[in-house]
Amino acid sequence: MSAPLTARTIHRGRLVDVLDDPAVAGPGALRCEPDGALVVAEGVILARGPWPAIAAMHAEGASVIDHGAALIAPGFVDAHVHFPQVDVIASHGKGLMDWLETYTFPAEAAFADPAHAAAMAAIFLDELLRNGATTALVFASVHAAATDALFAAAHARALRLIAGKVMLDRHAPAALCDDAETSHRESAALITRWHGRGRLGYAVTPRFAHTSSPAQLRAAGALLRDHPGVLLQTHLSETMDEIGAVAADYPDACDYLDVYERHGLVGPRSVFAHALHLSAAEWGRLGAAGASVAFCPTSNLFLGSGLFDLAAARRHDVTVALGTDVGAGTSFSMLATMGEAYKVTRLRGGDLSPAQAFYHATLGGARALGLADVIGTLEPGKDADFVVLDTTATPLLARRCGAATDIGDVLFALAVLGDDRAVAQTWVAGALAHAR
Ligand code: GUN
Ligand code: ZN
């Protein structure tokens, strides 16, 4: 007797993904199967291709979900977002430092209450899913229990989340500070509890050089050395005020990046948010180290921090991911973030093609997080994390997409006009996690 076939689901629709960085591989990196199908079994993509061929090979005994003219795309990767800042979004500030002190630090202090953290974890993850983000690199708060609450909620949803307890021991309210030894001990315990459990990963998370003493950055370096699989996330060179403060904090460092380099924090598993005001030397060292940056356009525009230099990142071969950076960022939507990334790049005098923007929101993010073998494209063998995008979500989107000339044009219209309304469904490891 032959073994029973595992339950298979076939998703029929317009498959779209980006197979490589279009800046390197050219526009052919954008792939579209206009009447395509994805075969999913046990949370993984089993096969993909044109609907007629897939139907002939796989339809028998499978359930078929027909998404019609909707796009089926890889789940988005939000490479920089803050769990305790949901309620800080759209708070009127006067630049980074003022915004942190007035709104953000008090909001994060409230996460000392585990019940508040647990309630907010559900809200935060629901927002990610509503916007089609199936993977995120997340700053939790300084509190280990709040970080546990976030991991537990992500685990229950089978979400691929990488997060870390924030380490900060100075230049912040005492209620929000830990110390070098405590942050090391609590981070190590969180790594033991969560890293590699299900689809979860850990990122050592010093907030930024200004709020960490040299002893704490040394502790962060030790955590990375002792736990080779974990990531490092922090902020780098976001505003001129911040750069001045870091120069005063670390007078021996030759520049901002050097502060992190001296503590062993710059390598292929490091993701630096913002990176707006780097020298050519800093860009060169980031590239040589194989480090990645998270481009957070809505945050950079909202705080008036600066315009990301995508051309410099390309020149120095630095992997670029996209981040919402909520709560300084103004939207959880990775579509909206792609649209704002385009505008920022135009303000720099450059161009961001639809394929390029979509790459940074999917495979680029997966590469930054060291997950390109499991997510980021719709390839067989990868996790069945995908979004169903409705090009008729609003009357204007329907009109504009109806007149689109090709798939790049559709993606561009979605980026400029779309938001959570365009995310009809979000599928996580083959299971429906959000339906509009
Ligand atoms: N730099 C240090 N902390 C933060 C934060 O919470 N948000 C942003 N945008 N920048 C930071
Ligand atoms: Zn941030």
Named CATH architecture of the largest domain: Alpha-Beta Barrel
Going by helix content, strand content and strand pairing, the class is alpha/beta
Shape summary: globular
Number of domains as seen in the coordinates: 2
How many helices? The count is 17
Give the helix proportion (percent range).
Answer: 25-40%
Low-confidence stretches: none
The number of distinct β-strands equals: 16
What does this structure look like?
This protein is α/β, with parallel strands linked by helices and about 425 residues long. Helix content is about 40%, strand content about 25%. Strand 8, helix 6 (about 180-195) and strand 9 (about 200-205) form a beta-alpha-beta unit. The protein binds guanine (GUN) and zinc ion.
Task: Name the features.
436 residues, alpha/beta, Urease, subunit C, domain 1, 9-stranded parallel beta sheet, 7-stranded mixed beta sheet, 17 helices, 16 strands, binds guanine, binds zinc ion
Topology:
Layout: E1 8-18, H1 22-25, E2 30-41, E3 44-50, H2 51-58, E4 63-74, E5 76-82, H3 96-109, H4 114-130, E6 133-139, H5 144-156, E7 160-164, E8 166-167, H6 180-194, E9 201-206, H7 214-226, E10 231-236, H8 240-249, H9 256-262, E11 270-274, H10 280-289, E12 292-295, H11 297-302, H12 310-315, E13 319-322, H13 334-347, H14 354-361, H15 363-368, E14 386-389, H16 395-402, H17 407-417, E15 423-428, E16 431-435
Parallel strand pairs: 1-4, 5-6, 6-7, 7-9, 8-9, 9-10, 10-11, 11-12, 12-13
Antiparallel strand pairs: 1-2, 2-3, 4-14, 14-15, 15-16
Helix pairs in contact: 4-5, 5-6, 6-7, 13-14, 13-17, 16-17
The chain binds guanine (GUN) and zinc ion.
